[in-house]
Design brief:
This protein is of the alpha+beta class. The protein has 3 helices and 6 strands, in the order αβββββαβα.
């Protein structure tokens, strides 16, 4: 999470995509949350990216980094976070949904994807 803070330092808006462990979520579920002005729009969703709280990382890094005005967090609940080179079945079955969320977010931010080919996991 701290590498993400360094990469976002000084930008107005950022999109973070990662595996997200969230209470009550099933493997393969996709998520979109917005962090604005020092807090998530709704109650802190308890996001954990590889066992580290994203909110805690933002709070800890805020004095050292210029955190963007808006951070959109997109993610998918993993089956597990063990090291490996393949996706679990629930993630593989739903990865195109996460890619589409990312494309929508880029367009929402002003990107022109008209000449960009569709990306699929197959």
């Amino acid at each position: 999470a701290f590498f993400a803070l360094e990469a976002m330092d000084g930008v107005d808006r950022a999109i973070v995509v990662d595996a997200l462990q969230m209470p009550g979520s099933d493997p393969g579920d996709t998520h979109r949350m917005v962090y604005r002005e020092g807090a998530f729009e709704n109650e802190d969703p308890g996001i954990h990216m590889h066992d580290f709280s994203f909110t805690e990382a933002l709070d800890a890094g805020n004095p050292a980094y210029e955190v963007p005005d808006e951070i959109v967090v997109l993610g998918m609940t993993p089956r597990d976070l063990s090291a490996g080179l393949t996706l679990s079945d629930p993630v593989a079955e739903n990865i195109d949904d996460l890619v589409e969320l990312g494309r929508e977010e880029l367009v929402r931010g002003g990107a022109d994807l008209a000449d960009t080919p569709e990306v699929t996991s197959t």
